[in-house]
Amino acid sequence: MGKKMLAIVGVIAVLVIALFFVVQYQNNQALKGADNPYGTTDLEQATIDQLDDPNYKNQILPDELSERLENGEDVTVYFYSPTCVYCQNTTPYLVPLAEENGIDMKKYNLLEFGEEGIPYQIQSTPTLVHFENGEEVGRIVGQRSEEEFQAFFDEYVLN
Q: At a CB cut-off of 8 Å and minimum separation 6, what does 128 contact?
């Protein structure tokens, strides 16, 4: 009985190790084949899973956002996390809505750059912020209806 148990444990250990390497290989292939705007391959799995999703294109990195705001530019930023259920529900209608309105809405991934998001006082996700002349002028927090986002765009971005 002892030898059978050792054999079973050995097989399970080999399978777990093999599964680990298969997942690592798949992630490396995904990073190579995808348009990776993050400038690193050390990404969270949820971010890797979204690399080919068109709703998560147009990313802005922390340094770029900071520079644009320091230069007094106007920018609309969607702060989200790939692991946030509310973001996963909101993104599929918010991104097309922004595109329909001709808004260059940047996406800021807080799962990857959470610490760098502190200056923007993001308390929860999703959060949509519009900056004019480098200063925040409007913010909408949480999962909202398409109509509420349209009203936000009308008031702050399209005025």
A: 76, 77, 78, 79, 94, 105, 139, 140, 141, 149, 152
Return the closest-CA partner of residue 47 out of 61, 62, 63, 31.
31
Q: Write the burial class of residue 94 (CB in 10 Å: 0-12 exposed, 13-18 middle, 19+ buried).
A: buried
Provide the strand spans (E) within the chain. 75-80, 105-109, 127-132, 135-141
**CA distance linking residue 41 with residue 95, whole number of Å:** 25
Q: What is the overall mean pLDDT for the chain? A: 88
107 CB contacts (<8 Å, ≥6 apart)? 56, 57, 58, 59, 60, 77, 78, 80
Does 29 have pLDDT greater than 60? no
Q: Which residues of 135-150 are buried (b: 16+ CB within 10 A; e: fewer)?
A: eeebbbeeebeeeebb
What is the arithmetic mean of pLDDT over 58-70?
95
The pLDDT tens digits of the residues spanning 73-108 come to 999 999 999 999 999 999 999 999 999 999 999 999
